[in-house]
Amino acid sequence: MVLPRSFYLQPTLVVARRLLGKVLVHDGPQGRVAGRIVETEAYRGPADRAAHSRGGHRSSRNEVMYGPPGHAYVYFIYGMHHCVNVVTQPRDVPEAVLLRALEPVAGTALMRARRGLDDGPEWRLCRGPGALCRACGIDRALNGADLVRGPLRILDAPEIPPSAVRRTPRIGVAYAGPDAMRAWRFVVAASPAVSGPSRSRRE
DNA sequence: TGAATGATTTACT
DNA sequence: GTAAATCATTCAA
């Protein structure tokens, strides 16, 4: 079952937490790929100095964040990568959740072809926001796509138990200062697919 | 008009 | 550990 639009009207931190375990599906021209979400980050509107909507800034790039909930915000970064977000909150409230990692569950052959990884473990295919988009064939053509009706959807799945979830500061936003370093990143602790420093180094 | 930089990944020392 | 790849967006002038 596809997650209903009301799911995306919950507080953004709640959406980020509850997206763990859900399944992202993309039906593209080359076939279907799907993965279980194991890492997310919340980005919270004008007051969040790490968000593209900081200061209430509005542009052609982040316009989708100001639109209705349950749509995809896809942007291009570092001259070579795409990142995909889920827009939360009603129209004109620019908040979103960045999808950072998936565990592949379908279409792994297509993911390998797109990533150019003929061998190696599956959990590497969608590890990190740029890698995830590459493997799933997500680019700016999907910016603004409706996650409830379109070719890119998120399916419901059982909740991850609290004991399996970790909260950490977000990755790559130190430039935005201490306020941006609150624990707005959510990960399934046991998953090998989560990005960032290895568990052995973290613990 | 021009310069700086980023919600990254990968390879290399 | 550091660096290169590579460009849309942003900000200063």
Task: Give the SSE map.
Blueprint: H1 12-19, E1 23-28, E2 31-44, E3 72-77, E4 81-88, E5 95-106, H2 108-115, H3 129-136, E6 152-155, E7 165-168, E8 185-188, H4 199-202
Antiparallel strand pairs: 1-2, 1-6, 2-5, 2-8, 3-4, 4-5, 7-8
Helix pairs in contact: 2-3
The chain binds a DNA duplex (13 and 13 nucleotides) through strand 3, strand 4 and helix 3.
Q: In total, how many beta strands?
A: 8
Roughly what is the average pLDDT, rounded to an integer? 95
Element string (H = helix, E = strand): HEEEEEHHEEEH
Q: Which parts are unreliable, with pLDDT below 50 for 5 consecutive residues or more?
A: 199-203
Structural features, described:
The protein has about 200 residues and is an alpha+beta fold. The chain is built from four helices and eight strands, in the order H-E-E-E-E-E-H-H-E-E-E-H. The protein has helices at about 10-20, 110-115, 130-135, 200; strands at about 25-30, 30-45, 70-75, 80-90, 95-105, 150-155, 165-170, 185-190. Strands 1, 2, 3, 4, 5, 6, 7 and 8 form an eight-stranded antiparallel sheet that branches. A hairpin with a 2-residue loop joins strand 1 and strand 2 (about 30-45). Helix 2 (about 110-115) packs across helix 3 (about 130-135). It is globular, with a radius of gyration of 16 Å. The chain binds a DNA duplex (13 and 13 nucleotides) through strand 3, strand 4 and helix 3.
